[in-house]
Amino acid sequence: MTNILPQSVSKLIEEFSKLPGIGPKTASRLTFYLLSKSPKDVESLGEAVAGLRKNLKYCENCFNITEESPCAICNDPKRDQKTVMIVEEPLDIVAMEKTGFSGIYHVLGGVISPIEGIGPENLRISEILAKIKKGDFQKKDCIKEIILATDPSLEGEATAMYLAREINKLARKGLIVTRIARGLPVGSDLEYADEITLTRALEGRREY
């Protein structure tokens, strides 16, 4: 069947369809919506997309996405440097910031998933273990609590268990490992949870 759409239009529909949650119909609507906008608006969108990877980097401390390293959170003197929350992805930080959490973060870059060939060595686990191992617990600003905030999925739970085991092996006196409470439904993602649910999950965390 002959494609009646111009190649540039078909190509954009194809690219939109690759995005999560975007099917062919939605991709087509987005494409034709852009065709109705002014050239300036389309150019602005194109520049924003093109500059996304160009201007961003990973924070040297927490591995959050940022334009300046260290990131704004790590550079904030008001943040509690003694409390570190471990999350899967940078988008989880956006969700957790809505709860009023005042500590700092560590982004793993995913979860342990043998089915997808992702093991501990593929995540930023060694980096957080090195920080804990290096920490002098006589200092006022040393890490005193690690909060495991991976998603309550099978992979998230397995990752949390692995982290707890490895952290406890370090036997650092004065350090506690907690897990966010199960105020989150199993199988859900942090990024889709509402503010109240996240706040209750954070407040109800327990030693792991």
Structure write-up:
Helices cover 42% and strands 13% of the residues. The protein contains eight helices and seven strands; from the N terminus they run H-H-H-E-E-H-E-H-E-H-E-H-E-H-E. It has a five-stranded mixed beta sheet with strand order 4-3-5-6-7. The protein has a two-stranded antiparallel sheet with strand order 1-2. Helix 1 (7-17) packs across helix 2 (24-36). The radius of gyration is 21 Å and the shape is elongated. It starts with 6 loop residues before the first helix and ends with a strand.
Biggest sheet strand order reads 4-3-5-6-7
Give the helix proportion (percent range): 40-55%
**What is the first-to-last residue Cα distance?**
59 Å
CATH architecture of the largest domain: 3-Layer(aba) Sandwich
Strand content: 5-15%
Instruction: Please tell me the total number of domains.
Output: 2
Largest sheet: 5 strands, mixed
Question: What is the top-level CATH class of the largest domain?
Answer: Alpha Beta
The succession of helices and strands, N to C, reads HHHEEHEHEHEHEHE
Could you report the average pLDDT, rounded to the nearest whole number? 87
Annotation, overall tally of beta strands: 7
Q: What is the CA-atom radius of gyration, in angstroms? A: 21 Å
- The backbone outline, from C-alpha atoms, is elongated
Query: Helix count?
Result: 8
What low-confidence regions span 5 or more consecutive residues with pLDDT below 50? none
Give the CATH topology of the largest domain. Answer: Dna Topoisomerase Vi A Subunit, Chain: A, domain 2
Going by helix content, strand content and strand pairing, the class is alpha/beta
